[in-house]
């Protein structure tokens, strides 16, 4: 079982449009509504693979009730923590060329009692979990140290932690030695305080996060592929993508693929890349099923192309 923790979940609405013209009436050619938040997306991808998952998340108001309903309809076991504020609603607008415009609401502010209830629920539901995936931004009311506290508690209970967050929350948690962290290129650049122009720059930044406490770093480099830096070495993998339809949740799908495959080593990296490549070719924040994957298309090496410029340099 893989437990996910999403402190700031959302109700995600995605619209596909011919073009996004500011100030004009734009008619959508397609739309979908999904339960959202990075941990929720990980649970959705894990469930699509036929693996049991439990999603712990604070929910409030009508949007929260709809998130719970959508999770149930997708066969995902939820462990909701009731909160007074309303769960946020996010909007994404996808254009045919792959351009994605997102509007993310801030979400509710959690009281001290709600924060503690969230931590307690994680502890109660993590019994028997192979991994705990802690994902996404922190809602108002939670200090950057909240994830660090969660990692410490989980390790004390014998669980392995995968952490996908950024900024001060990521830096604070490194001291508690999360088993794997999953930044994208921009988050990796922010964490080390310098721009990343090449694959080699990303490798050095990942190594620095390991020196600060992360046991492994799974870094998404967008169209260029993904890196895994752990105690056994450094690995780089990529896969061809015919056309990008939406990149919403692609990184979350990658983390799910990594954890499904055991969460360690090059085989797990290959699974992560296969899941991410499949996700970007699906609409909205749809998560890939096994039939969407093309594992044979993944190229993996223990000798990353260090001098290769990143398609999208991170600053």
Automatic annotation (TrEMBL):
Gene3D superfamilies: 3.40.1190.20. Pfam families: PfkB (PF00294). Keywords: ATP-binding, Kinase, Nucleotide-binding, Transferase. SUPFAM superfamilies: Ribokinase-like. The keyword Zinc-finger does not apply. It comes from the Bacteria. One of its GO terms (biological process) is carbohydrate catabolic process. NCBIfam families: 1-PFK, pfkB. Belongs to the carbohydrate kinase PfkB family. This is 1-phosphofructokinase. It comes from Streptomyces kanamyceticus.
């Amino acid at each position: 079982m893989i437990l996910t923790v999403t402190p700031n979940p959302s109700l995600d609405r995605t619209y596909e449009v011919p073009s996004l013209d500011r100030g004009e009436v734009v008619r959508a050619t397609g739309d979908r509504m999904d339960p959202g938040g990075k941990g929720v997306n990980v649970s959705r991808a894990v469930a699509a693979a036929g693996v049991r998952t439990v999603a712990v998340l604070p929910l409030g108001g009508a949007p929260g009730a709809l998130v719970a309903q959508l999770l149930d309809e997708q066969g995902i076991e939820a462990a909701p923590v009731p909160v007074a504020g309303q769960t946020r609603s996010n909007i994404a607008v996808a254009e045919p060329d792959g351009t994605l415009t997102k509007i993310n609401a801030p979400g509710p502010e959690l009281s001290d009692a709600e924060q503690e209830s969230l931590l307690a629920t994680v502890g109660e539901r993590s019994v028997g979990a192979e991994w705990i995936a802690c994902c996404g931004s922190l809602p108002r009311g939670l200090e950057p140290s909240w994830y660090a506290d969660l990692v410490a508690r989980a390790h004390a209970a014998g669980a392995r932690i995968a952490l996908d967050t950024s900024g001060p929350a990521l830096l604070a948690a490194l001291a508690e030695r999360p088993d794997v962290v999953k930044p994208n290129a921009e988050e990796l650049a922010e964490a080390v305080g310098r721009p990343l122009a090449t694959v080699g720059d990303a490798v050095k930044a990942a190594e620095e996060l390991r020196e600060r406490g992360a046991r492994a770093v799974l870094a998404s480099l967008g169209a260029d592929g993904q890196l895994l830096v752990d105690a056994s070495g450094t690995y780089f993998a990529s896969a061809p993508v015919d056309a990008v339809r939406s990149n919403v949740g692609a990184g979350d799908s990658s983390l799910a693929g990594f954890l499904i495959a055991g969460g360690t080593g090059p085989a797990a990296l290959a699974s992560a890349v296969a899941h991410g490549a499949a996700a970007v070719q699906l609409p909205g924040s749809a998560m890939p099923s096994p039939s969407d994957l093309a594992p044979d298309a993944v190229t993996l090496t223990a000798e990353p192309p260090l001098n290769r410029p990143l398609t999208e340099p991170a600053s």
